[in-house]
Amino acid sequence: MTEPWSEAELGDLLAMLPRPPAAWTEAAAAAPALEMAIEQLRLLGPVDAELREREVDRLEQALRLAGVEPTVELRTALRRRLDVH
Amino acid sequence: MLTAAASDSQIVAACRAGDRDAWQRLVERFDRYVLGIIRHGYRVPPQDAEDVFQEVFIKAYARLGDLRNDDAIGPWLAGITRRTCLTRLRTRVDEPVDSLDEETADEAALEQVERAMDVDAALRRLPEACQEILERFFRDDQPYAQIAAELGLPAGTIASRISRCLSKLKVELEGRQEPVSASGHTR
Known about the structure:
The complex is a heterodimer of chains A (85) and B (187). Chain A is mainly α and 85 residues long. Chain A has helices at residues 7-16, 22-29, 31-44, 49-53, 55-65, 72-84. Chain A has 6 helices and no strands. Chain A is rod-shaped and about 65 Å long. Chain B has 187 residues and is an all-alpha fold. Helix content of chain B is 65%, strand content 0%. Chain B has helices spanning 8-16, 20-41, 46-63, 73-91, 107-123, 128-139, 144-151, 158-174. The longest helix of chain B is centred in the N-terminal third of the chain and has 22 residues, at 20-41. The two termini of chain B are 31 Å apart. Residues 182-187 of chain B have low confidence and may be disordered. Chain A binds chain B through residues 2, 4-5, 7, 10-11, 13-21, 24-25, 27-29, 31-35, 77, 80-81, and chain B through 18, 20, 23-24, 27-28, 31-33, 35-36, 40, 50-51, 53-54, 57-58, 61-62, 112-113, 115-117, 119-120, 123, 134-135, 138-141, 163, 166-167, 169-170, 173-174, 179, 187.
């Protein structure tokens, strides 16, 4: 037997789970593209000092090759992924 | 093509088939839930919450093949979230490592998160107009005047519309013979 729901409780429970910031959800939703972008970066070759200077270009290129527009949020998410790889 | 009413298992199956839109749908269905566990269940500091949130979905995507029962995606994600929260809390220098274990979780808060997901699942079954007004009032904290202006409704009707929609939500929740939470648990 479950307890009946009061309107006050419903209001509290609705307020309890707000949507995360849009950028968080966008980055999480891009996980498949990020995986592909990491693979693209691997194919593009090792990162040397010269290439590091062009890291932003590399990240953008990898994301485009993975089929997504390289927004700031996705570049950040990809960089985060690369840090843990 | 998945419909808005697609079940969790349908979404997971589409994800396994490489459907990127399905993965996005899965993230959008469970993002509140994952964040709820992070914030309420483990009180992960705000500066770490985003990293934990992203890590949960990265792990979930990488390990989706390990999920044995597609209907259990909610509890499975909750497990990943709980472990990721604990790992993160253990790495914080100001926390004694030995003091952190499963008891770190606020179980009462986690139960409330489960109930909140029940409500969220019921909300998604309501007419769009009701979803909109309840979201705006309770989740976005919008005042009556703003809701009225943006939805093109008479300001004096907002309170009664909210009340009617809450009643519908209540009926939706209580009308189910076997209440099952959005996370897959039977209440």
